[in-house]
Design brief:
By secondary structure, this protein is an all-beta fold. It has one domain: OB fold (Dihydrolipoamide Acetyltransferase, E2P), CATH 2.40.50.100. Helix content is 0%, strand content 52%. The protein starts with a strand and ends with a strand.
Length: 85
Protein backbone atom coordinates (compact mmCIF):
# COMPACT_ATOMS: atom_id res chain seq x y z
CA UNK A 1 0.00 0.00 0.00
CA UNK A 2 1.26 3.51 -0.73
CA UNK A 3 0.50 6.98 0.58
CA UNK A 4 0.67 10.32 -1.27
CA UNK A 5 2.72 12.98 0.54
CA UNK A 6 3.46 16.63 -0.21
CA UNK A 7 6.90 18.14 -0.74
CA UNK A 8 6.90 21.78 0.34
CA UNK A 9 9.40 24.62 0.07
CA UNK A 10 11.04 24.55 3.53
CA UNK A 11 10.75 27.57 5.81
CA UNK A 12 14.26 27.25 7.18
CA UNK A 13 16.04 27.81 3.85
CA UNK A 14 17.09 31.42 3.91
CA UNK A 15 15.40 34.77 3.73
CA UNK A 16 12.46 35.96 1.69
CA UNK A 17 9.07 34.56 0.88
CA UNK A 18 9.72 33.16 -2.59
CA UNK A 19 12.27 31.08 -4.44
CA UNK A 20 12.69 30.45 -8.17
CA UNK A 21 12.79 26.80 -9.24
CA UNK A 22 16.06 26.41 -11.15
CA UNK A 23 16.05 22.65 -11.78
CA UNK A 24 14.36 19.41 -10.72
CA UNK A 25 16.81 16.53 -10.28
CA UNK A 26 14.06 13.91 -10.58
CA UNK A 27 11.16 13.40 -13.01
CA UNK A 28 7.74 11.97 -12.11
CA UNK A 29 8.01 8.20 -11.76
CA UNK A 30 11.60 8.30 -10.49
CA UNK A 31 12.44 7.17 -6.97
CA UNK A 32 14.53 9.12 -4.46
CA UNK A 33 15.99 8.63 -1.01
CA UNK A 34 15.52 10.78 2.09
CA UNK A 35 18.15 13.53 2.14
CA UNK A 36 18.82 13.31 -1.61
CA UNK A 37 18.68 16.63 -3.50
CA UNK A 38 15.31 16.89 -5.27
CA UNK A 39 15.21 20.43 -6.59
CA UNK A 40 17.46 23.47 -6.85
CA UNK A 41 15.87 26.81 -5.98
CA UNK A 42 17.21 30.35 -5.93
CA UNK A 43 16.38 33.33 -3.74
CA UNK A 44 17.51 36.90 -4.37
CA UNK A 45 20.85 36.09 -2.75
CA UNK A 46 21.66 32.40 -3.07
CA UNK A 47 20.86 29.14 -4.88
CA UNK A 48 20.49 25.95 -2.86
CA UNK A 49 19.35 22.34 -3.16
CA UNK A 50 16.24 21.18 -1.32
CA UNK A 51 16.72 17.69 0.15
CA UNK A 52 13.96 15.09 0.10
CA UNK A 53 12.15 15.01 3.45
CA UNK A 54 11.44 11.27 3.00
CA UNK A 55 12.10 8.42 0.54
CA UNK A 56 9.58 7.78 -2.22
CA UNK A 57 8.62 8.05 -5.88
CA UNK A 58 7.93 11.47 -7.38
CA UNK A 59 4.30 11.62 -8.55
CA UNK A 60 3.70 15.17 -9.77
CA UNK A 61 5.70 18.38 -10.05
CA UNK A 62 3.39 21.29 -9.20
CA UNK A 63 5.95 24.13 -9.44
CA UNK A 64 7.90 23.74 -12.65
CA UNK A 65 11.32 25.05 -13.68
CA UNK A 66 11.26 28.84 -14.06
CA UNK A 67 8.27 29.28 -11.73
CA UNK A 68 8.39 30.68 -8.21
CA UNK A 69 7.27 28.98 -5.01
CA UNK A 70 6.37 30.59 -1.72
CA UNK A 71 7.70 29.26 1.57
CA UNK A 72 5.44 26.41 2.69
CA UNK A 73 3.91 25.96 -0.78
CA UNK A 74 3.48 22.42 -2.12
CA UNK A 75 6.10 22.01 -4.86
CA UNK A 76 5.45 18.36 -5.69
CA UNK A 77 3.74 15.18 -4.51
CA UNK A 78 5.30 11.77 -4.03
CA UNK A 79 4.24 8.27 -3.10
CA UNK A 80 5.79 6.49 -0.18
CA UNK A 81 5.47 2.77 0.26
CA UNK A 82 4.31 1.41 3.55
CA UNK A 83 6.30 -1.71 4.21
CA UNK A 84 6.09 -4.03 7.16
CA UNK A 85 9.30 -5.17 8.79
Amino acid sequence: MSELKEIKLPKELGEGNESLVVMWFKEPGESFEEGEALVEVQTDKVAFEVPAPFSGVLSEIKVKRGETAKVGQVMATAEISETST
